[in-house]
Design goal:
Structural class: mainly alpha
Strand content: under 5%
Strand order of the largest sheet: 1-4
Distance between the termini: 45 Å
Number of strands: 4
Largest sheet: 2 strands, antiparallel
Shape: elongated
Number of domains: 3
């Protein structure tokens, strides 16, 4: 089955689920709210369906009500403050875009990808990529976009180059593991614009999935 056909089926099933869900179910998942504030429908992003859920819960709420998840300001009711909080959180949830997500240039079974700016760019063109799954169409869009690391020549040009180790500070920019380099420079542009210093090398260990065991001799 082609990717486009699989995507159409997934979108249809999601639409059917929303259509037949009760208002309480659509508004929130109950007191056990999503880890992503504002993602009341638990799709991995804050979007128009969450906005509708907030409006559906408008007013005072009872303790234990599923609408507690729409009370983003903790005011025991849903009002303007919660609407503003939801709009402030609009877009992909943290973790959907950035370190820990799947690769941007290959299809994976989860929403989003590991390059934050690339992920936001692609999902801005196609919400499916952050709401449902980063499929081959999303990966193809990333592979052809300047916003997706392909447009920053540092990490692609230095990939595999001896001496430009990701896990050590060195006098150049970037490092020789492409995905690692992209991840670190996404957090700190200094590492690709000025110098790969000790802070960049430290981010490798703390924030990004980089391989420090297989350094080049």
């Amino acid at each position: 089955m082609k990717t486009s056909q699989m995507r159409s089926i997934a979108v249809l099933l999601a639409a059917v689920a929303i259509l037949f869900a009760s208002p309480a179910t659509a508004a929130a998942s109950g007191p056990a709210c999503s880890r992503c504030a504002g993602d009341l429908t638990e799709t991995g992003s804050v979007d128009v369906f969450d906005l509708l859920a907030v409006l559906d819960c408008w007013g005072e709420i009872e303790p234990g009500s599923p609408c507690e998840c729409a009370d983003l300001t903790g005011s025991a009711g849903v009002g303007v403050g919660d609407l503003l909080a939801l709009l402030n959180a609009w877009g992909a949830c943290p973790g959907v875009c950035g370190a820990g997500a799947g690769e941007c240039f290959a299809a994976n079974t989860t929403p989003g990808c590991d390059h934050t700016e690339c992920c936001k760019f692609v999902c801005g063109l196609d919400r499916f990529c952050c709401d449902v799954e980063w499929d081959q169409l999303c990966a193809d869009q990333a592979s052809s976009s300047l916003e997706c690391g392909k447009g920053d020549p540092v990490c692609s040009e230095i990939a595999g180059m001896p001496g430009a180790e990701c896990c050590d500070a060195h006098g150049g920019v970037g490092c020789n593991q492409f995905q690692c380099c992209e991840c670190v420079c996404d957090l700190d542009l200094f590492c690709c614009d000025v110098e790969w210093d000790e802070i960049c090398a430290g981010a490798v260990v703390v924030d990004c999935p980089c391989d420090c065991a297989s350094r080049s001799p």
